[in-house]
Design brief:
Strand order of the largest sheet of chain A: 2-3-1-4-5-6
Number of helices of chain A: 7
CATH topology of the largest domain in chain B: Rossmann fold
CATH superfamily of chain A: Pyruvate-ferredoxin oxidoreductase, PFOR, domain III
Keywords (chain A): Oxidoreductase, Pyruvate
Pfam family, one (chain A): POR
Structural class of chain B: alpha/beta
Order of helices and strands of chain A: EHEEEHEHEHHHH
GO molecular function, one term (chain A): oxidoreductase activity, acting on the aldehyde or oxo group of donors
Number of strands of chain B: 18
Radius of gyration of chain A: 15 Å
Shape of chain A: globular
Strand content of chain B: 15-25%
Largest sheet of chain B: 6 strands, mixed
Strand order of the largest sheet of chain B: 2-3-4-6-5-11
Structural class of chain A: alpha/beta
Distance between the termini of chain A: 22 Å
Number of strands of chain A: 6
Number of helices of chain B: 20
Helix content of chain B: 40-55%
Helix content of chain A: 40-55%
CATH topology of chain A: Pyruvate-ferredoxin Oxidoreductase, domain 3
Bound molecules: thiamine diphosphate, iron/sulfur cluster
Strand content of chain A: 15-25%
Shape of chain B: globular
InterPro entries (chain A): IorB_Oxidoreductase, Pyrv/ketoisovalerate_OxRed_cat, Pyrv_flavodox_OxRed_cen
Protein name (chain A): Indolepyruvate oxidoreductase subunit beta
Oligomer: heterodimer
Chain lengths: ~190, ~550
Amino acid sequence: MKTDMVIAGVGGQGILSIAAALGSAALDNNLYMKQAETHGMSQRGGDVQSFMRISDKPIYSDLIPKGGADIILSVEPMEALRYLPYLKKGGYVVANSSPFINITDYPDEAELVKTIEALPNYVLIDADEIAKEVTGSTRAFNFVMLGAASPFIDVPFEYLEEGIRKIFGRKGEDVVKMNIDALHAGRKFSQDNK
Amino acid sequence: MQKSLLLGVEAIAQGAIDAGMSGVYAYPGTPSTEIAEYIQHSKLANERKIHSEWSANEKTAMETALGMSYAGKRTMVCMKHVGLNVAADCFMNAAITGSNGGMIVTIADDPSMHSSQNEQDSRVYAKFAMIPILEPSNQQEAYDMTRFGFELSEAFGTPVMMRITTRLAHSRAGVTPVTDIVAENEMSLPKDKQQFILLPGIARQRYKLLLSNQEKFEAASAESPYNQYTEGSDKSLGVIACGLGYNYLMENYPNGDCPFPVLKVSQYPLPRKMIQKITSECDKVLVLEEGYPVVEEMLKGYLENEAVIGRLDGTLSRDGELTPDMVAVALGFEVEEGMAIPDLVSARPPALCVGCSHHDVYKALNEVIAEYGEGRVFSDIGCYTLGALPPYRAINACVDMGASITMAKGAADAGLIPSVAMIGDSTFTHSGMTGLLDAVNENSPITVIISDNESISMTGGQKSSAKGKLEDICAGLGVHPDHIHVFTSLPKKHEEVKDIIRKECDYQGVSVIIPRRICVQKNVRDQKIKKALKAKAAAKA
Ligand SMILES: Cc1ncc(C[n+]2csc(CCOP(=O)(O)OP(=O)(O)O)c2C)c(N)n1
Ligand code: SF4
């Protein structure tokens, strides 16, 4: 059992909550995990990434080697492509199709979609829209994304639900339910469209 | 014992709390900031009243920690690598005074400059000061070594450096804490009443003691559980793997079957016998270290011993952090990179937040400076440094904390008038005040803008020592009250602010302009905390 995943996005988009849920799930089930994240300057709207590694054997490097990632999970379409050198042959790109545009030279969106659709293995999902449909707000879009990546993560799906329960438990059952619903919706989309 | 999911920095913080530390002293700086923050929020630390308030700068932090050590208690001082430049005077001399209560100097280096001006390697400083270094390779070691570090410090009466780099600082893993949490030390004065008086006569003796201690430090490294020699059958190569370098080595041998002899180094001074063994039994020795080629240079020497390979001969990149791929190539493995980054991907540099008060300052400043000609704005370190990027391209310098004011003064001395300094509130109280005093004493024609967002924002919105004090400090240093302007920074005041800047640029003396508005992010965070406290109080009632 081993999954190496690059989680990508833009500073402020909250990609760390995805990593936190996954990390807590891994730890509670006695798996090894390492998760390197970006703090500091890039958090001001720059590109940020987290390297998430889960395994049933000890993990050494905090960084994922190039060509070693099973999954690139990106909460933003352009950021998904920035990490392609890390993707393993046969690995999956799971990307949110809603762009986050805070630069003047953001690429043409149709071109961007075309580029992603030309990848061998991808799931392109409008996580903002699905979150809104299922939970009434876009807030849980991060967990739609985790759900969409879940079929490719070599960790039992129940663990992810547990992880969400653990990190949102303090905020009440409503918040837990919202994020778990988002997780399921993302997973379903992925299973129907992969 | 249940594992906790901790960042490297958090593991150090928890390790310090569990090892009976009585106070942490720090000034924020990526990637070190979360050590003090973790302690500020720790339940046990709060129950024990462990000191964790921010210091005004790294020098005051280091000195205060030394004072706590003098009084017999365990203490840690934390900063980023460049902070140690600021604290270096105390640091070098603390090696000579030695410590009383255990003292750990935790320095977080930032190779590849993710959030820094340079990538200096703090091991050079520890070597310069001749004190032991601990360099954990993973989160569990970071936790364990903190306790070990306090014990080492007290055993030898010396401050100990804990050196980490960005990757460990900001990577999480499961950490198993100890069950026997240590009580704090009782207060106790140093046995030798003169230990901390560095008058030449005493300092010479202390220095001799430090020199004679080197052998003991080396013996401790030889016995350290953190330095390990693993035999290997293929002696065509030996690998010395320092700190995180060990992980990148082992990443390439997932089944633990590295054929070469390996010396894992996590405690310095280097364990000499083990170094001699690996260099004598292997044809070549590859040195893997994060940062400068410190160990490599020692072994390679001036005579360029060709058997030693690493960053100096191009086997590894001379700059930047190590990566598993880089190490793989050095070990002769092929790296199968994924697909190339498509051309349409644009860079996404960090930028000032929407609504940030620094925007208003730069808009006004740029228009006024255009009237005088470009090349005269000396900026400093903080979120406002992003004014260097488009759309503003407003600044001409960013060097070290406080340098805006003094560089503007020097340029004015050279005839560049007006010269403008652009500095943040926290940077001003960190290192700007003394420079302003220099300018006041010579009535230099400079205009200092302290863009006051009531927060240390670049590092995440910590409490600024400057809060509510700036105008009084400037007046106290002797800036004439007619040339101190304080106002709320708002877009609608654009023309008014331009008039003030222009008027003060024309004034042939020191002026200080303080546009003030709280950082947008800090405000959101403060409101959240307030709401949570209110909810808590309501739940109690
Ligand atoms: C000597 C040193 N210590 C710490 C840092 C890290 N650092 C960079 S910017 C900054 C905060 C500056 O705060 P302020 O001047 O108030 O500006 P703001 O970010 O709030 O705009 C800090 C602590 C550094 N670069 N150098
Ligand atoms: S964090 Fe605060 S000071 Fe920094 S850019 Fe954002 S609003 Fe401005």
